[in-house]
Amino acid sequence: MKNTEIALNVLKHYKTFNPQLRNYYGIVAGYGLMNIAEIAGEGSEEMDMAKHFLASYPDHIDHVGYNFPSYRIGGNPKARAVYMGYCDEKETIRVHAEEMLTAPRNALGIISRPRQGQHERIWVDAATAVTPFLVFAGHIFNEEKYYDEAVKQTIMMYDVFMDSNNGLLHQAQGFCDGYSPAKFSDDHWSRGNGWGLFPLSELVEHLPKDHPEYQKVIRYYINHVDALIPYQSKNGFWRQEITLESYHGLESYEETSGTGLIAYAIGVGIRTGVLDRRRYLPVFNNAISGLKKISIGENYEIHNSCPSCLSPGDGSIFAYLSLKSPIDEPHGAGPVVMALAEAHRCGIVE
Asked: pTM of the prediction?
């Protein structure tokens, strides 16, 4: 079966329990949907599904509370769709791009927790919420300020969250229960590293090549990919705690959502020529194979995806590994679909 067919079936199953693609993890699934719709083209089932998703936001969704107002309009998939010419909501994108330029920040200027009194709390997940949206807004309006902020936010987060000992990212600062606001979570979490590498890969592909920070983006991207490769498991995965197979009796399981995001990002680098195909394609192939064999069940349900996670408990590795992974955990489908779409684009059709 073609990878895009598998991706569509994963989404169809996902919609049996999240029919609106609501919440931020549903929006990530929507981003995967936009990718396979672009591949399938106008008139396809995928494009019809994508256009229904786009039309549903914001007025036909049972919204939850959001840290980022752009989620209310459909977030990154809506911005990508406007950029690619699949919907015409330019002014809606402008309003939310402008909001991102003035959203709460910590003392360093990193977009932070919007709640009053929590503006020094930062987490790498925010890079995914902000950077792709802004780089697409930059193209839509030909506005340098959007490109600049797209780069600034992700690069600053890398500078803050990068562990110099191994080149991997911590997830958060200021969220650990009972600790100083300056304390970082101890993790090198699979999905957290994906939340960083995915927006960096969107800059690799979509930031104008003459942007003054483009070469810096490339350097950060390659360095992170190279730091991740030694930790890839034999089955093609990055583990819940990337650096460990187990810790104090807890398994660091092969985690699906982070592997999907990382695989997508590596595929972008291969396709755009930023990564050498001969060197990196085996890594990408191994990840895609693992997702298909282990993460996707017989009925297209998703296995081994970490549940909602923001510096759990004291932010320790033990706390991250204590989180159990239910079948069809809702963060898993979107990254899997994204990775399968990128596999198709890289020439891995089946």
From this structure: 0.98
